[in-house]
Structures are given as C-alpha cells and as structure tokens.
Write a structure and sequence with these properties.
Blueprint (H helix, E strand, L loop, with lengths): L1 H25 L5 H9 L7 H8 L3 H15 L4 E5 L5 E5 L1
Antiparallel strand pairs: 1-2
Helix pairs in contact: 3-4
Length: 93
Amino acid sequence: MTKRKSATVKTATAAIADTVRNEQQGRKPKTKLAQLEAMLRRPNGVTIEQISKSLAWQAHSVRGAMSGALKKKQGLTITNEKTDDGRRLYRIA
C-alpha cells in the first residue's frame, strides 16, 4: 500500500511542478529594467512617454536606463526612428 501512495504523491508533485513552470513562463518581468527590456523588444517599438507612464519614471530616467543599463552594461543595440507625428519609437535591434 505504501508504494501506491508514494507513487501518487510523486505524480502529484510532478503535476504541481509542471503547473508552476507554466505559470512562470506567462508572468511579466519582475524588475523595472526587465520590464523596460520587454517593452523595447516589442515589434512596433515603444515611445519614451509609454515607458514613463508604465514604469512611473521620468523621461530622463528612461533615457539613462536605456543608455547605461541596457546599452553599456548589457551590450544591447537600441535603435530609434522618428515617426510622422514627431515622436521617437525605440526598440532593441
């Protein structure tokens, strides 16, 4: 009888582990820098205003984080393009 119980416990534990893994894949990034990087990886790009509003940062803080933490420390290439309405869209190349 104990063999059956332990097999059931192992199966239940494996099922819980699978559920936890699936939930973690769908979660949003935890840190603000990770959130910033995720926003910059969008195919359409993102504006400074959108980032500022989402992260509750001022515009100069957003630009500083992109320049220092993402470009210099992580070595990412961030491109920008000016739209017809005068805004700049930033994205990771």
